[in-house]
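Subject: for your reference before the review

Hello V.,

The reviewers asked for a structural picture of the protein, and I figured it would be easier to keep everything in one thread rather than splitting it across files. Below is the amino acid sequence we used in the manuscript, unchanged from the supplementary table.
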Amino acid sequence: MDEDARAGAVLAASMEEQISADIVGFEHAHQMWAFLRERYEPTGQSTYIAALRQEQLLRQGDSTVDDFYAQMSAVWRQLDSIGPPLSPSTCDSCKAQKVALETRRTYDFLSRLRDEFEQLRAQLVSRVPCVSLMEALAAVRNEELRLRSAGLLQSSSSSVLAARSSFSTAVTPPPKAPLSAASSSEGGGGGRLHCDYCGKKTHVEAFCFKKKKDQSRRGGSGRASQGIGSAGGSDTGGSQWSSAGSET
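And here is what came back from the structure prediction:
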């Protein structure tokens, strides 16, 4: 078996069956590669647009300055590999484009940093001439070390949790007093229920059923004694009247 046939066999064996079934009909390995490239390789325009969108969405977040710069550098390298090549050493126009590209990427890097770097970002952007990308990276790295040593650089997730906690504490309504405590305070019994009339601890004196029952009994017996007294008085007057008549 020659080298071309061996390469075609290795290529077909390293793919899934549904993909290898499309290339087994080709006689040479370069034909297989050309078919696969045409079918599966993304176009330069779609890859460039995807890289641009990824660059626009990048933010530092909780990443360190070095990690964030590494993420942006990976996207920039992808954009450079897709875009037209520049030769600043032989072309004055390419040199000017290279300088403008680095200035734009310096501003992109600084603008996507966290809010804690706002003061340093304003200082670097206002410099004339503009700082280079490496100078900005060194300055931001030193500021990150200073903020971390001073305890001024917190993670975004902890800041969000702290904000949510403070908001929930602010809107929490005050606790309501228990019903038993409210009833006892109204009855003047302190912290527990107690009836001064019957001695029970299930109610206060104002709601004592025994007291009300005794009061109703005393009221009925008083009215009955008043009726008996009035009846006795009438009987005495009648007897005195009858005795006076008999004497006459």
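For the response letter, the relevant points are probably these. DSSP finds eleven helices and no strands in the chain. The longest helix spans residues 209-247.

Happy to draft the paragraph if you're swamped.

O.
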